[in-house]
Amino acid sequence: MTQLNFSPPPPLTEATEKLRAEVRAFLDREMAGMTPAQRAASWVGRSPEFSRKMAEQGWIGMAWPKTYGGHERSALERYVVLEETLAAGAPVGAHWIADRQSAPSILRFGTEEQRQFFLPKIASGECFFCIGMSEPDSGSDLASTRTRAVAVDGGFKINGTKVWTTGAHIAHYMILFCRTDTKPADRHSGVSQFIVDMKTPGITVRPIIDLSNEHDFNEVVFEDVFLPESALLGKSGDGWKQVTSELSYERSGPDRFLSTFPLLTEALAMLGNRVDDRSAIVIGRIVAHLVTLRRMSRSIAGMLQRGEDPAVQAAVVKELGTSLEQEMVEVLRLIVDVEADLGSDNAYTAVLAHMMLHAPSFSLRGGTREILRGIIARGLGLR
Amino acid sequence: MSETANLLREMSERLFGEICDKSLLIAAEKGEWPAALWSAMEENGLTNALVPESAGGAGLGISDAFVALRVSASHAAPVPFAETLIAGWLASGAGLAVPSGPLTVAPVRTDETLQLEKRSGGWRLTGRAHRVPFARHATAIVVLAKAGDTPHVAVVDPGRCKIEHGHSLAVEPRDDVAFDCELGPGDVRAAASGVDVATLQAFGAAARAMQISGALARALEITVGYAQERVQFGKPIAKFQAIQHNLAMLAAHSAAANAAADMAAEAAERGMNRLVIAAAKTRCGEAAGVGAAIAHAAHGAIGFTQEHTLHFFTKRLWSWRDEFGKESDWSLELGRAAVAAGPAGLWPDIVAA
């Protein structure tokens, strides 16, 4: 059959539920002063201080070997921490990218030296990463990347421009995707990844203000930036393969369907017991989708732990999950009678405004809807 | 997947694949009972899968048995497989002997109740049940009825009931049954602890969720195959991005239905966790609607004909999503539970599901 396999997720254990209770107690304590609008930012909200506290608990780098500062816990235990922080709207954005995909890439493709240098720093919550993929002329068509690394004495010289780079203004390092061979056999070869110290001379980070007037993403310009040979991540020319495997981490997690969860809890708080049947049906349908997506996402966590390659399944979770996130805004606004207003004192009203303004980005970051559907279609053998 | 489940899947694929062909499906729509198919299912121990071994059944768990149910649905098997599984579980759970042959259950609608009254030397069963699947073909109807306030299970001979024929969209029998009959003392037992009409509805919903996942998987397969064969504008329509994206969504909803149905089967096995089943039936019902629409759109007019096989699956999707509670019924229950849980309790409830 043409079916995409989502094997049953690993079961919850006593250990995961004990951990869950610890995480909830921690979040109650540490997030006490946060406003609902701050919670709404969730995994794009950044607090280096909060990240350090998460690290102190051993909740960054949870599944890596202890040799590299990790905690050798299961992928499922890590999943518990992720989903609990997201459901609460914790400001986990500072370390999110490093923990989610940069570190797993370094662990998988990096040299021993790179692992020993970067991973303990990431696990201690003091080292943040950004992802240098998109460019002004290379968005969904990632393979058309123009940023170039030219081999020079002792390393590489980088020229080019990256754009929409989330968190580049606070990140210590970037994993840069760029072209190392300008005449490759095919467009997916001749590209490589580098770990770039953001303090390297020749790098300019310029803020790009988004439509909600927030500074989340940036333009990053490379002008004759020298990188030592040790900056190469993985094999030269293997960038496409590496980046594709990284995207399974980026696309399958609970951040792909829980971004708007704080809106649902604020709606419940606002409605109290005054919920008619029509509204209850709307809320119940959202819950049905969330429960199913959570199972699919945990199933992928199990596949990743077993070393399988769930790239197509990850695309399914991101496509269904971000569609739900966006739809939640559209349907909840119809059952609670307020006009969205960022400046409102009313929590739901402010959170609704935040979500409405950010919803378009959910199906852009990490691969557009159209790209994901293309990946699923390829998985079906249509392309 | 357990080894039992794997063996069951392979065996079921062979069985339904060999017997359940287009001519059988056409004959069934004309009212013919597929006796050979049913015999093969009985011979392979599928029909009494949920009856304990001590009572002469196969003694399987619900998750394992539902593997075969999914395969049967992926072949549109026009038999009361789900109903027979549930009837066997219900009767044996109450300590009643499970009759052989195709079985069905009643009532299948939550707003209907059947009554039992103690009589000298037995019981009297009264009430009406609408749209009972395959009642006309069943050797027995296993009913849940109230004796006073206590749920009881009774095994009833359909020959002693008044049956009016009706049909689902898939032209499967959905018959109205009027009960007004005397039953012997051995035909009635108190239901197993915790089992009532709501349990029956939840079990039915879990079964329909599983059947939807099977039929939708087949609709996806048929549609992908068609898109690769059908040539327009000089190339297979599967090469057009618009088609690819629609089929990607069909696959995504099919995958979600699969995951939801697995979840429902596990929940049914773990004490019939109602809210999980509610979520699964809601999700599968939605996937059925979206999926069937995409499958038909990709097929164009040929998929709209009696001649093409697609409708055997899409008509079942449309009817199964309505049965044992449609999306709105189960969403309402979920939504009320979410409101009762409140902002602080909702997330813990989702995790516990």
Outline:
With 383 residues, chain A is an alpha+beta fold.
Question: What does it look like?
Answer:
The complex is a heterodimer of chains A (383) and B (353). Chain A has helices at residues 14-30, 36-41, 48-56, 75-88, 93-109, 112-123, 239-252, 261-271, 277-305, 311-335, 347-362, 369-379, and strands at 129-132, 148-152, 155-163, 173-179, 191-197, 203-209, 215-228, 232-233. Chain A has 383 residues and is an alpha+beta fold. Chain B is of the alpha+beta class and 353 residues long. Helices cover 53% and strands 16% of the residues of chain B. Chain B contains 10 helices and 10 strands. Chain B has helices at 3-19, 22-29, 35-43, 62-74, 81-93, 197-229, 241-269, 274-299, 310-322, 327-352, and strands spanning 103-106, 115-119, 122-133, 140-147, 150-156, 162-164, 174-183, 188-190, 231-232, 235-236. In chain B, strands 1, 2, 3, 4, 5, 6, 7 and 8 form an 8-stranded mixed beta sheet that branches. In chain B, a hairpin with a 2-residue loop joins strand 4 and strand 5. The longest helix of chain B is centred in the middle third of the chain and has 33 residues, at 197-229. The chains are: A alpha+beta (383), B alpha+beta (353). At the A-B interface, helix 4, helix 8, helix 9, helix 10 and helix 12 of A face helix 6, helix 7, helix 8 and helix 10 of B.
